[in-house]
Each structure stands twice: as C-alpha cells, then as structure tokens.
Amino acid sequence: MQETRLITSPGITSPGVATAGGAASPGGAAPSGTILFEPREPDSAYFELFDVVIGIGFHWERREDQRFRGTLVLEILDGLIQVINEIPVESYLASVISSEMNAGSPPEFLKAHAVISRSWLLAQMERKNALDGNGPRKQSMRETGEELIRWYDREDHDTFDVCADDHCQRYQGITRAHHPEVAGAVQSTAGEVLFYGDEICDARFSKCCGGITERYEHCWEEVPHPYLQPVPDRPETAGGAIPDLRVERNAVAYIRSRPEAFCNTSDRELLGMVLNDYDLASKDFFRWQVSYSQEELAALVREKSGRDFGKILDLVPVERGASARLVRLKIVGTQQTITIGKELEIRRWLSRSHLYSAAFTVQKEGFREGVPGKFILHGAGWGHGVGLCQIGAAVMADRGYTYHQILLHYYRNATIRKCYE
Asked: Structural domain boundaries of the chain?
C-alpha cells in the first residue's frame, strides 16, 4: 500500500489562507481529487493538524500541533495528500506576525511587521498570477563543470500561493495569534502596503542582518530592487563610514568585530519579548562561531553535495555582497574543486541544517602535509540579510521609533500607501 502523509505547509489562495479546525462540513465546488471543507461558523470553527514540522531543514526544526481557521482543502498530489488553507489576508497576517516573532514584541515593531508581511504576500500573489500560464518559470540554477549557482524562491509552489514555513513566511495557525497587540497591529495598519513607484514591494526580511543589510540580487535572481539595497543597521547619526565589505580584508575585520548596530544587542529581556521560544534557544547570532574537523567537514560536504571532494584543502571566498555575505565560495579538495553559490546553497553545504548566515570568514588550523585538520568559521548575522532586520527593527521600536520610521529606514526609496480598508 502506498504511504499517504500530510504536506502540512498550508498555502494562501486569494482571498484567503488554508487552515484546520472542527465544525467543518464538505461543501463548495472542488476539482476531481479534491475535498473541500467549509466551516459552518467561521469565527469559532477550527481544524487541527498534528506533528506539523516547522523550521524545515533549519537548526530549530521541530514538530508541533497547530490549529487553523478558514476553509480546509485536501488535494491528492503525487500520491500524497496536500493540505491547503484558504483564509482572508488580514487573518493570515495575525498568524504570521505571531509566528515570525513573539506576540509580546514592541507594538511599533508588530505594526511594521504587519505592513511588510502584507506587502510581501501581495507581491508574491501578483507574481504568481503573472507567471501562471505565461510560459516557463525563471531559471534558479546555473551549472558548469566548475561552478554551481543556485537560489531558492517561491516559484517552488505551483498549486498554492505561499507555504507556511520559513521558505515563505511562518504561518502557524491560531495557536499563537490570539494576542490583543497582534490584532491591534493588523487592524491599525489594515491595507497599508509598501510601494516603489506603482509596484508593490517584495518586502523581504531576515532575523539579524549582522550590521548591514544585503542586496536582493546577491541572494536571488539578478534583478536589482531599488528598495532592497545595503542599509547600515544603525542610527543616521552614527559616526564613521562602514568600509566596503566586498573587499576580503575589510570583511574579515568587520566580521571579527562587534560594530555599533541596532541588532547588536545582548538585552535578554528584550530578546525574550521579541523571539519565540524556538528562536530564543539560538544564542550569539550577531556574531557566531562554528568549528569542523577535517573529517567532519569532508563528510558533511560529501553528504550535502553528493560529490566526493576527498580531503578539504580550502574554502576560498570568491565574491562577497555588501553585508560581507558570501555570494560565491570555492571549495578546494584533493579530488575536485567547485565554486558554489548563492548564500543559501553555501549555508546548506556547510551545515547539518543551515549556517546562521553566509557572512563568515575561514580560519584553518592543525596542518599536516599541507592538509588542514580543523576549520573555524567566524560569522555574522542570521539569515539572508535582505530588507528588514527583525532584531534591529525590534530594537528601534524599543527605542521609540515609529513603524513608519522603521519601514523607511530599511526600505529606502519606498513609500507607504493604504490600498484598502
């Protein structure tokens, strides 16, 4: 008998999101191979999914039970059952904000997150609608004999708008969404969206930029976004220019230091207000360190790449972005050498789950016959670093910045408009 399992990453289909909970009945038009459940009492009915995997593939991966409101759609896809939740956009946002960050975060930060999550979602839905039925999707990989460049974006989703995990935005149902501050943040910013000209901003965000944000094109397709450019994560009045971190010696010095930055905080009380429990377990993400023995690194790269490099001789930075994140990294082995990118592919190859970020330097020790016995990675930040820095934005809110000031700090050249009530 073929195994059947739930793909528990609900997708949003306009005008709503897929969730689960009781008091639902089959109904509505559904294509063959699809079962649709619509709640009789939408404000109180819910459905529950058990052992949902969150943080898929990342160091905080775990399972939890989740409850959802809205319409439940079950579809057969490649012999498996795909779960899709259809809910209104504003209801989705209340869950996203409290899934991405702690619902007890500073109110102005929650408002800022409501605007960027709404903007990002609407931009993805517009993008999906433009792609549907209009030929092949854009290439997300380039490979030659000496180079493998790959990036990951939401084009992986063909049958729904967005997934429920870090690949898109964390959407963990109503379990964490029942908080008056979250509801207030969504309601007070209802319909507010970031624009660049007449275009809705693809408002990316990450946990901790490490001191300066990154360009969009260094992490995804090579299409510059004027509102997703490098921004020092510090007050405008901060003294001293940040050096060009694309230059290796500057990147090394910057990553090995702890420069002034909003996200450079050790305030555990504030972090406890901002981060959910599974994120709070991650410590020292502004600056971090990982060590591998020769045997560990060689086995890890072989497992992640499917290639036998032999012994690893070197990890050579080839190209860095404005935040010192590696865009391309050369892996030199006794049996083969290859250059990989972009940042997420680098993070995947060099960790059992993912490195905190691709902003790191390499220290080699314990040489025997020209082969290093140990590699130490000194790193900065958590995530891709593009757009809003969640820790930095939370610190700004705690210091009295308004959500408009926070948004325009990170998304330069953007404007804020109210699209609907």
From this structure: 1-87
